Please model this.
Amino acid sequence: MKGVLLMKRRRDKGGGPVLAPGRAVWLKGLVALTILVLHAPIVVMMVFSFNNSRRNVVWRGFTTKYYEQAFNDPALLEALINSLTIAVISTFLSLIIGALAALMLWRFRFPGKGAFEGAMALPLVVPDICMGVAMMVFFASIGWPSHLPWPLSLSNIIAAHVAFSFPFVAVVVRARLAHFNREWEEAARDLGASEWRILMDILLPFLKPALIAGALLAFTLSLDDFVVTFFTSGPETVTLPVKIYSMVRFSVTPKVNAASTILILLTVVATLIATRLQRPEETARAEMAAQGGGQG
Amino acid sequence: MHASAREDAPRAVVSLRGIRRRFGRVTAVDGIDLDIREGEFFALLGPSGCGKTTLLRIIAGLERPDAGRIFIDGADMTTTAPNHRPVNMVFQSYALFPHMTVAENVAYGLRLEGLARAVIAERVREALALVRLEGLEDRRPDALSGGQRQRVALARALVKRPRVLLLDEPLSALDARLREEMRLELSALQMRLGLTFVLVTHDQDEALSMADRIAVMRNGRIEQLDEPEGLYERPRNRFVAEFIGKINFFDSILEEVDEEGLRVVLPGVGPLSLPVRCLVTERKAADLALGDALTLAIRPEKIRISRAGDHADADSDLFGGQDKADVRLTGRIAEWAYYGGISHMIVEATLPQSGEVRRISVVFQNAAKETVEAFDIGDAVVLSWPASAMIVLTS
Ligand SMILES: Nc1ncnc2c1ncn2[C@@H]1O[C@H](COP(=O)(O)OP(=O)(O)O)[C@@H](O)[C@H]1O
Ligand SMILES: [Mg+2]
Model:
């Protein structure tokens, strides 16, 4: 839910703390406990990825050799490239499908709209394992070709990822659309804008934060998905989470920690990029001005 | 039909013919014929929900009428999309684009026209100067005050150089002081530009002070279309009389009528003679029959109030000896709202013949300090006015 948090933070800006912690010791304690439970394992895992020992339990000194090993492991590298490819393509598709679905539900009334909306929200609540099994059965039953050249070999995984991540995009975009003032649209039309110009000049800029948040959601959902991917991937296509899982089954080495740390870093980088893109437009305009352009 | 409509109103910028619009069971606009003249400041005035906004949106093209035709500059634009009509609108909520700066908001309509960058910049500068917003070009709408937003909305519409500027309750979101200021400014702007303005408002003061002509609307129809003083002094029916300003009504019976005037009986007061010019409805004197029920009305500021006891010489000084105080009632001040320049009083007056007590609204000019201090709630006073100051309504 990182993307949703991002949107929230922007809206709260300037409002000050909602709950002033003050002297609420229990609240501070709760926060500390949460941080400990949530973040301590991650920190430990990251730290031990630099541990100079094959047995991941006692600290034996600092080394980066497991990162070298990880990047020199062709299987791991292939899994990483697969993961990124799948994440980028499925994010792109989810963004388009999700945004269009949200726009359609916002703009039009049609028979079966309620049912459609409910069905679309289904992937949000259906357990991953069921999604995974369903996808596996589905692809098997329609006889999806399994020995395609790369990157077509990723197509079924991408399709599965789009299926579970576009509803997240749709929900986020829909929430933002609820705050769209229809008078902006009318004002634009009154000033001479066609439907197309209204979409490009008014609606999309308004939706930008939601689109970024939705893309981030889709990207991270895809990048770290294990269950659905595990069921849909053929024997030859491996993604990073699936690869890490198979490594862990063998033995938990610092190399596994290194690979996991890379996965986390990728997510963090994606989040940072999204945050930057979402920064108030003042910065964006200052940058445009610096590049010598006037108005956009 | 088109040709005849054009001949009907050669100087009309906007002509509406038989405009009708329903929303489900609600008829928002119910058959409106209207000609808005070149260069005038026109106001649509009426209570909330009477269809003013709908009518304005129909002119802008944001709403399609179910029936009727719209002509702009003589051309039938009934089915023309809003982006192809030479009119622009200032929305009630201003509807400024939140992701654009002030300058970008104002420039947007020109960018859509595909004008050269330099031309746009020049016209934006001009428009912002016109509404006195220089220096705020790079602000965003959410960093502006209500009055400034209003000016941006105005500049954004004006910069397009429309044939008609449509304004939907443009001042309703401003505080009282600013509203007063903007009223004067809007009038001045309209005069300077010589542009046709169509203003929608539910505020009679706003319409009276700014507009050249006012259409008073009720339930999707125009009740009366006139200049401000015509509406105030010669309202055509009770609704208009009551909606524009304060007024006192008296039911009465027609006793005699000829070309010179009418003679009516005011129950509880007695017979009165009125000149025929007091009859302000469409019904002419000749249409009236003896025994008809009429409504007599008097505006609060046309009633003279004096202390009981010193009214003996009241007639001559107030009415210049031309008219007599034909109606004279005694009563007590029941309520008094002091506005500084004027006082608004409610006097409980006793009708001389029936003894019935009527609450009568009186506006009193606070011309001299002493006179204000001379009155108090509960004081016995005399109200008087000449019959010719009254108006006669038939409905
Ligand atoms: N889009 C709409 N859908 C349904 N009813 C509407 C719509 N627009 C206006 N109405 C109804 O039409 C009537 C006139 O509305 P409006 O023109 O906004 O009045 P005004 O501007 O004079 O307050 C009202 O009863 C209103 O509820
Ligand atoms: Mg309105």
